């Protein structure tokens, strides 16, 4: 599927949850991805959500009907966006991943904790200004 087949909706952060509920009511019943992009120079983090309507037979290649990409910009200094896990339960792990790797808080999430890095890890490794403070490990060559 090419990018030009996706409808793009840009949503202000304060309208995010309302818009997402509306999209679900409009038949977008499948959340296929939720991720983020750190735009350090712009001072924002952009949360990107991919939604689809599961309408068998609509598109013989995918089985999906309408495809929507939702983009929401939030302040990089205090990134926070309402959780959509109550709307699409499959967003649970995606939101945990975005919190862990980018530091975006999702108020309303049922269990927001690290998923990719170990408990006690400091920082969010996909932020552009992340500096790994862990002690460097010595590389040991593999021998047979």
Query: What percent of the residues sit in helical stretches (DSSP H or I)?
Result: 10-25%
Strand percentage lies at: 25-35%
The chain-level mean pLDDT equals: 90
Instruction: Sum up the overall morphology in one term.
Output: globular
What value does the Rg take, in angstroms? 18 Å
- Distance between the amino and carboxyl termini: 44 Å
Given as residue ranges, the uncertain stretches (5+ residues, pLDDT < 50) are none
Number of distinct beta strands: 4
Order of helices and strands: EHEEEH
Number of helices: 2
Biggest beta-sheet profile = 4 strands, mixed
Order of strands across the main sheet: 1-4-3-2
Structural class: alpha+beta
Account of the 3D structure:
The protein is α+β, with helices and mostly antiparallel strands and 144 residues long. It contains two helices and four strands, in the order βαβββα. A four-stranded mixed β-sheet has the order 1-4-3-2. The longest helix has 12 residues, at 91-102. The radius of gyration is 18 Å and the shape is globular.
Offer a few descriptive terms.
144 residues; alpha+beta; 4-stranded mixed sheet; 2 helices; globular
